[in-house]
Structure prediction request, 320 residues.
Amino acid sequence: METTTLRLTGRLEPRDGWSAAAGCTIAKSVELLSTRSAFLLMREAFYGATRFEEFVRRAELTEATTSTRLHELVEHGLLELEPYQERGQRTRQRYLLTEKGADLFPVIVSLMQWGDRWLSDTGGPAELLHRGCGAVVGTELRCEHGHIVELADLDLAATT
Amino acid sequence: METTTLRLTGRLEPRDGWSAAAGCTIAKSVELLSTRSAFLLMREAFYGATRFEEFVRRAELTEATTSTRLHELVEHGLLELEPYQERGQRTRQRYLLTEKGADLFPVIVSLMQWGDRWLSDTGGPAELLHRGCGAVVGTELRCEHGHIVELADLDLAATT
Prediction:
């Protein structure tokens, strides 16, 4: 049996000829996001949470964890602070998704899609629907020419 | 300023009316994958590593971490063991991607794409190309009718 993988090309072949350590953006992304709580807080940001107490309650995390993690997410530029004031209350800060944070959405959707398929007996408790046409939404691997691409159709090439 | 989020619909609205804890497949996926080393080993599986010493060397992890993590990935069904024998050597085990493991590829690509865009000055050290046409490959958010979908076009609906 041969397993399907992508194909390394150019000076990326053979794999033992180079180290991914320095530049690998998969590793960099994972390092920035590799706590369960970071993902849960980002999930809640996409579900509309903006206030500290909403994040605590909805992500079901402690105040301490939520505080530490939100601080990191702001520091990394995934969320930004904005002052807001409710009538008769003092000014407080709320957390909004930045463009960088919002752009993480395909990662969250891919994780949900994979979990729905492989970790749930029921296909998952919720689904994403395209409001315009009602069809189910997921992530697809496509090239810039619009072709749907399989793992076996892929070359990995060095850019630098 | 209003932040863009998806829209919760049906009995998922309001968000404070339900707990995601029990069934959330984002959380489940993250729990299974939430170590940096798991991602690096899966990356190397997609790059063609099958043997223990290849994983150690290419993922730049210790033997102990590699061993623990590969064992978990087998246990979770992302990799499977297959005996192999090189001429004159004893039979050994190699690690192959299962269908469940291979299906994780969009998660890895989404992380790479996000890291290329936001965590690298150069756009990342490597790119995925569609062998058939040479165009760059990434993940896209699309509905089953083929429409490209933005965060603001999304409804989250309960399935059960």
Summary: Chain B touches chain A through 101 residues (CB under 8 Å).
